[in-house]
């Protein structure tokens, strides 16, 4: 059983006196349905799952009326069970396939029906379904991502080590043996990634990673099929071309994404497909800042950005990285693919652990800070990802010289340490960053 931290949010939702219908959003196959059903088994007397993709008959239950009491009565008759307030969890799965079910959540929120209703849906389908009215303000929302590195540690039986890392003083270096063990786990995670199906294959003893890679190929095929399902033929071809270009462009020394490098397309033709990938949760956008003035969102460049994949395991599969090379040579984690694996890993951890928008900064001389954040006091926090043990920080030093109040963080293969104003965190401790 994969343990997910989203369960804590689900408990808060269940126990809240002001709960609304809940929607779990995320990319395909990140475990939304599994999380809801496991939660239901542990916290409700019974539950029903309405899968609108597998069972098309369910759509008709929402065709005539969106009155919650009528819907509940029809569901009881259809499933042959009683739906009891506070005892039953009603799950609307693949809700993007039934626009009226999505709209009905508004009426569940407004009605006096004391019932826990939770929905799971594809980000892409929900965001682009023109037939539905998304119930803004009428739902509670939880974003579900691939498993984080901490959740991966739980999955592989390293709970004690995870707890130890959680409570460790980041100003003190870890014992070398633990540091090396954690870096080894990072290398495995970069191969496997955070997709539940793939992790389960690894847990079944796939140490050769053959089945892991096959599952990642199938996931890639599923994503490509989804492009055509939720877009016109021309749009889906453009989305696919953009998706396939991300790994290739991450292999460059300068990782900014160039629309011009997507063959056979003009920039204007790719802006909408890019939004599709972002809305689908498959691409993570890191926007370039024009300045470090706050709020960053107001000063982000509209067309200059870096793009990462939502799952570093998918990235390592798409670039055909040899798993055995990564495991046998510690330096290959940071030298292979020009450090893009480490940078994508950090971007993914930042998104999953902090749910922060991602930004980066480029100086007038071309120096780049990989990620930049706003402190609560409105000062910039610079975060640099170093691909290996060489921690020369020319860009970071220049940034600190320009912004006297800035905080400087670095993620690398080195242990916890501090060098002047630069505080180093090892790759396995991104979640401990003071952001």
Overview of the molecule:
The chain has 435 residues and is an alpha/beta fold. The longest helix is centred in the middle third of the chain and has 20 residues, at 210-229. The chain folds into 2 domains: 6-143, 3-Layer(aba) Sandwich (Rossmann fold); 149-432, no CATH class. The chain has helices at 6-15, 32-43, 68-79, 99-110, 123-127, 149-155, 159-167, 176-192, 196-203, 210-229, 233-250, 267-279, 312-318, 323-328, 332-335, 340-354, 394-402; strands at residues 22-26, 46-51, 88-93, 116-122, 140-143, 283-289, 300-309, 358-362, 368-369, 371-374, 380-385, 407-412, 417-419, 422-426. Helix content is 42%, strand content 17%. The model has no long low-confidence stretch (mean pLDDT 91).
What would a concise description of this structure say?
This protein is of the alpha/beta class and about 425 residues long. The chain has helices at about 5-15, 30-45, 70-80, 100-110, 125, 150-155, 160-165, 175-190, 195-205, 210-230, 235-250, 265-280, 310-320, 325-330, 330-335, 340-355, 395-400, and strands at about 20-25, 45-50, 90-95, 115-120, 140-145, 285-290, 300-310, 360, 370, 370-375, 380-385, 405-410, 415-420, 420-425. The strands form three sheets. The protein has a five-stranded parallel beta sheet, sandwiched between helices. Strands 10-11-12-14-13 form a five-stranded mixed beta sheet.
